[in-house]
Design a protein that fits this description.
This protein is mostly helical. The protein folds into two domains: 52 residues, no CATH class; 97 residues, Orthogonal Bundle (Cytochrome Bc1 Complex, Chain D, domain 2). It is built from seven helices and two strands; from the N terminus they run αββαααααα. The protein has a two-stranded antiparallel sheet. A hairpin with a 3-residue loop joins strand 1 and strand 2. Helix 1 crosses helix 2 and helix 3 packs across helix 7. The radius of gyration is 23 Å and the shape is elongated. The structure holds heme C (HEC).
């Protein structure tokens, strides 16, 4: 009896196919909307966990180290380095009109700046792109990297906020 109920609950979570709900031995009757609520709560918990990794407000301070060479936001232009709007999820070397190093373009090969790759690059840029032209030693602290990535992740490719 107990096993059957647990199976029902699992089915309900993914497809909500249990007509008229079903009975849990300890908790009473579940309906389809209960299933959706449980699934929704689980999703919400995951989302909160993911965004808890970096703090955009702290990242804004860290970005001061980048701002001599990079801009982000609505009016962002290329400076010494390319503008960084939408960088989380953007292809390597994707800004039109910015002259990237040959090394970055060679290594690009369809790669995307996801959070993991950004973390590696920002730790020590030359480790990832040895002959790249980003003259920046890197951010030693993991928190600084997570925070600046969270800050950058607030911007879409057109510079608007997400
Ligand atoms: C002294 C100037 C300078 C500083 C400081 C600097 N960068 Fe850069 N950055 C560059 C240059 C130049 C490039 C282009 C690299 C190339 O073509 O090899 C670059 C490239 C990048 C790229 C790749 C962009 C693309 O379109 O592929 C990212 C991401 C990046 N920088 C992030 C950062 C972040 C975040 C910081 C601060 C923590 C930072 N940079 C600090 C000069 C700088």
């Amino acid at each position: 009896m107990r096993d059957a109920t647990v199976r029902h609950l699992h089915q309900g979570l993914t497809s909500c196919s249990v007509d008229g709900g079903f009975k849990h031995p300890n908790r009473g009757r579940y309906t389809c909307s209960d299933c959706l609520m449980i699934a929704g709560t689980a999703l919400l918990a995951l989302t909160v966990q993911a965004s808890a990794e970096g703090d955009p407000a702290k990242g804004e301070k860290v970005f001061k180290k980048c701002a001599a060479c990079h801009a982000v936001g609505p009016e962002a232009k290329n400076k010494v380095g390319p503008e960084l709007n939408g960088i989380v999820g953007r292809a390597w070397g994707a800004v039109d009109g910015y002259k990237y190093s040959a090394n970055l373009l060679e290594l690009a090969d369809g790669k995307v700046w996801d959070e993991e790759t950004l973390d590696v690059y920002l730790t020590k840029p030359k480790d990832l792109i040895p002959k790249g032209k980003m003259a920046f030693a890197g951010l030693k602290k993991e928190d600084d990297r997570a925070n600046v990535i969270a800050y950058l992740n607030q911007y879409n490719e057109d510079g608007s906020s997400k």
